[in-house]
Amino acid sequence: ADVWAGIVVTLVRGAGETPRYMIAMVENITERKSSEEAARRLVEEEQLAGRLDARNRELQRVHEARGEFLSAVSHELKTPLASILAFADILARNQPGNLTQRQQDHLGAIQRNCRSLETLINDLLDLSRFDAGRFELTKRLFKADDLFTETVRSFAPIFSQKNQSLVTDIQLGDIRLEADRERLGQVLANLLSNASKYSPAGKIVTLKARAVDGVICVEVEDRGIGIRPADMARIFTPFFRSDDPATRKVPGTGLGLAIVKSIIELHGGEVTASSEPGCGSKFGFKVPGVLAA
């Protein structure tokens, strides 16, 4: 329409002075075409909005279905697993001489794998609770240093198996922290476990903790295989596993860091991560709630 209007104006001007009625006609055509174009765009935008709304409803339905599926499967797996683990523990307490060394080794493998599966099931349950918005913290007052001491002690055998060293620099003194003790222990265990798993034998892992302005600041640093820059943006995404061959060699589900991030953010804190391939990784988190000693 604009092109034709321009042609008309040009022709008229070429013939001499432009009559007013010609100018009015051209302006009327241009305005009418502009209105039609605006109406067409409005209809297209409304149609697009409708499609997006339907897409969002479908995504929400899929999201809810995934949460329900994870919760149902996890609960169904817990019962038989608990039975297997209970009987394995009973056999492990059997009188000496009733089981050969090979049978004891096989029994130990059953126990280890059952506990690994138990951890996976608990992670799936936590994820389903996060998805459904039903994950709740149980906050209470506790001595922060005790939590770190217990966690470090429990990981001593794990680091010993790979001839690794866990170096601690914990300066918390007698401060008290109001938080979910069990969940913060889960966060620490997850980060220390990853640091050990993704580090070769003989390497050093460092754990630091400070209390600064009412906030506990924690860092776990390893000297392992590191994380590629392309993967850093997705490491806190549930079920994400890098396709890096070095990373793929280490067993995992891709749930641990996602749960770590969710727990810390529920506490009102934040999680940070930095890494350089081949030189190791550093994960940190901050949690408020520190009270005076």
Structural summary, described in words:
The relative contact order is 0.09. Helices cover 59% and strands 17% of the residues. β6 and β7 form a beta hairpin. α1 (2-15) runs antiparallel to α2 (20-92) and α3 crosses α8 (256-266). The protein is built from eight helices and eight strands; from the N terminus they run αααβαββαββαααβββ. The chain has a five-stranded mixed sheet with strand order 2-4-5-7-6, with helices on one face. It has a three-stranded antiparallel sheet with strand order 1-3-8. The protein has helices spanning 2-15, 20-92, 101-132, 144-161, 181-197, 229-232, 245-248, 256-266; strands at 140-143, 165-171, 176-179, 204-212, 215-221, 270-276, 280-288, 290-291. The radius of gyration is 31 Å and the shape is elongated. It is α+β, with helices and mostly antiparallel strands and 293 residues long.
